[in-house]
Amino acid sequence: MLGDAGRLEQALEMIGRQAGHTRRAGLGPWTQLGNQAQRLQVLALMGRHEQVLAEAGDLRARMADLPGRAGDEEAVEPWNVRETLLGAGYASTVALGRWQQALDLNAEVTASTRQRGAGVHELTRTRFNDAGPLIRLGRLAEAGQLLAGCQQVFEDHRDTARLARVLSARADLEAELRHGQAAAEFGRAALRLAYAQPELRGIAISHHNLAGYLRAAGGDRPERRAHRLAAALLFALADMTHELVVTMRTLADEQGEDTASWLPSTVAEVVAAAELTDGVRLGELLAALEPDPRTVEEALAGILQAAAEAPTDDRVGVAVLAACRGDQEAAARLEPFLGEMSRAPEWVALAGVLRRILGGERGTALLDGLDLVSTAIAREVLRRADGGDGEPAA
Q1: 9 by DSSP, 3-state: which?
Q2: 374 belongs to a structural domain
Q3: Distance (Å) of CA 383 to CA 36, 58, 63, 287
């Protein structure tokens, strides 16, 4: 419940408490492994994908040594733990764009699902996860056939949440085929259904994706901008760092074409424009996620400021990572940029934290006192400086 509500730090804390109770209760190794698999699910939601994949590899090695059947001391089924662990790894490979690895992991989940005799609906839910990687690998005909079959099964079972995901994937497929208007229509339908069965991350991703489809189709600019900002707000308020950074980069890239004063720039304007799409209840969702309107307004202001002042390429992010790894020339090139940041009141705290990271400090205590956007940027730099993926963070 905490994860679905976007309260990821609290979810992680709860799993830690659960693991402690599991040990004290004397429950078996499958149950203890299940706690760790749940933890990886939350870490994936937090964007700590390299960490997830590294720990998943260790846990899979432990899993291989466990008995195939649960003993009396277990509170879980082994297949559930296996599929949860593999699913967390799949989510992180997708986030990192490792498409073939994602297909390989999902093939293992599918085999496990089939082996335990799951019905057609559950098996289809698992097979659907191949659609995104197939599209990204250019295997469009396979993806189209898979999506058509999945849509029929989910319609037959009245599974609204899964149907929303199918429509979103169909929008991706149409976008790859350069069918801009069709992609936008599928994107709107997917967003409407996502709100019908609210799951925060799915809604935010649907907002982000619809903005992209509208851009490709030459759609209404205020509508497109509102959906992009809606995604950024939801990611920021829910502390979904990886997704927020991706959306912030896109916002920065779009700044040159979205500078008109009539585009949405306040929470009320973003909500009004986004809610022109049938079924969208963004205002209600923001209020549930953060009851203080001032905090939401400040988050949006930070997002707009960061997008306006972001570098147009990844040189700063590359330099930060290189400097963290001992490149003195990169550190020297960063100093003028950090000095300029320090002169802006809204960035002075982040500049100080980046300097401390470059000086070798680590740990989440560095994030204390930062606003939502600065926290996202600093956390991403920390993660990658500690051995995360090499994609630039800023």
Answers
A1: helix
A2: yes
A3: 20, 19, 27, 30
- The number of distinct structural domains making up the chain is 1
The pLDDT assigned to 229 comes to: 94
Residue 340: C-alpha distances to residues 1, 51, 302, 325 (Å): 42, 33, 17, 23
Q: Residue 81 to residues 53, 122, 296, 352: CA-CA distances in angstroms?
A: 16, 16, 37, 42
CA distances, 322 to each of 11, 74, 315, 379 (Å): 33, 47, 10, 17
pTM of the model: 0.67
pLDDT of amino acid 371: 67
The CA distance from 225 to 199, in Å, is 22
Residue 361 lies in a domain: yes
Cβ(388)–Cβ(394) below 8 Å: no
**pLDDT confidence band for 314 (50 / 70 / 90):** very low
Q: Which of 324, 326, 322, 325 is nearest to 314 (CA)?
A: 322
What's the CA gap between 314 and 299, in Å, rounded? 23
The two structure tokens encoding residue 377: 């940027």
Contact of 390 with 366, CB cutoff 8 Å: no
CA distance 337 to 85: 42
Residue 260 falls inside a structural domain: no
Residue 42 DSSP one-character state: H
With beta carbons less than 8 A apart as the criterion, state whether 175 and 217 touch: no
Whole-number Å distance between alpha carbons of 257 and 364:
36
Q: What is the pLDDT of residue 336?
A: 66
pLDDT in tens, 144-188: 999 999 999 999 999 998 999 999 999 999 999 989 899 999 999
Domain range for 359: 315-394
Amino acid occupying residue 88: A
